[in-house]
Automatic annotation (TrEMBL):
The keyword Phosphoprotein applies. It comes from Oceanobacillus jordanicus. It holds the Pfam family STAS. Residues 150-261 form the STAS domain. GO terms for molecular function: heme binding; oxygen binding. InterPro entries: Bact_StressResp_Reg, Globin/Proto, RsbRA_N, STAS_dom, STAS_dom_sf. Keywords: Phosphoprotein. This is RsbT co-antagonist protein RsbRA.
Length: 289
């Protein structure tokens, strides 16, 4: 019986596709696909229904399903597009087969539903699994990229590096900060590291503990860590919590911290005379000649 229903659906695929397209188009304006161009929506829908029939004909082809799932992910369309489309296909196919039948009873209807479900459910499972797996891979890559950006160590001058921190610091990020600091200090041959916490909204006992650990680790490999960007409210919180930051220098701004770093490395900022004055002196000297 199942083979009979399948043959009927395949032979009348044009009619089923037309019914499917009409119903899919009718829900376009009211859902997530409303902003998609008509041309792209039309071509993707036709490809989708072709994937469904190809899978049915080949007893569950995996290649076409994988390729289509990857395309939907690249387009940025939600998973509900796939599930909605398959549910619509299931409904119109059942309606079409029943509509072509002369004698219909409860047993016959049950057989039709079971057969169509047996075609559609494997496609749903495979598409959902492919879609979910691909998204998990993308999220994993994004997480790695964000981790690399969450604790960057930037060399700004010979033997001086800066680590700007933005956002909250949890245990996982603190571990990453420690790793990047130690690797970066060795890689850049840093004598001074400036940890800038201007963008850290809250400094509590845990955050301070992580920062102290990082600074101590830097000290143990022969470098100096300067904590900069301490705002008044952060300073007050640190004092109220009784946190001891006396083991390494602290400055209120990155500018002051950088000046301190220059002193530690045996350098200083020297202000040059104004350019206009230099030009005037040059002109006067030329006139004297």
């Amino acid at each position: 019986m199942d083979q009979k229903f399948k043959q009927s659906a395949i032979e009348n695929s044009d009619s089923i596709v037309q019914m499917w397209m009409e119903e899919i188009n009718s829900i376009k304006d009211g859902n997530y696909t409303a902003s998609i161009s008509d041309e792209l929506f039309e071509s993707t829908n036709r490809e989708f229904v072709n994937v469904i029939f190809t899978s049915i004909k080949s007893q569950g082809s995996t290649k076409v399903v994988e390729d289509f799932s990857e395309k939907i992910i690249n387009l940025g369309w939600p998973l509900s597009y796939i599930t909605d489309g398959l549910q619509v296909f299931r409904r119109v196919t059942i309606d079409y087969i029943l509509g072509q039948s002369v004698k219909i009873d409860s047993s016959y209807i049950s057989d039709v539903i079971k057969s169509v479900d047996a075609w559609v459910e494997p496609i749903i499972r495979q598409l959902v699994n492919e879609y979910s797996g691909s998204w998990e891979h993308i999220v994993s890559l994004q997480r790695v990229a964000l981790q690399e950006l969450s604790a960057p160590l930037i060399p700004v001058m010979d033997r001086i590096t800066v680590m700007p921190l933005i956002g909250t610091i949890d245990t996982e990020r603190a571990k990453l900060i420690m790793e990047n600091l130690l690797e970066g200090v060795i890689k850049h041959n840093s004598e001074v590291v400036l940890i800038d916490i201007t963008g850290v909204p809250v400094v509590d006992t845990m955050v301070a503990h992580h920062i102290i650990q990082a600074a101590e680790a830097v000290r143990l490999i022969g470098s100096t860590c300067i904590l900069v960007g301490i705002r008044p409210e952060i300073a007050q919180t640190i004092v109220n919590l009784g946190i001891d930051l006396g083991k390494f220098p602290t400055k209120s701004s990155l500018k002051k911290g950088f000046t301190k770093a220059l002193e530690i490395t045996g350098r200083e900022v020297i202000e040059h005379e104004k350019t206009e004055e230099n030009v005037e002196k040059l002109i006067d000297s030329l006139k004297g000649e």
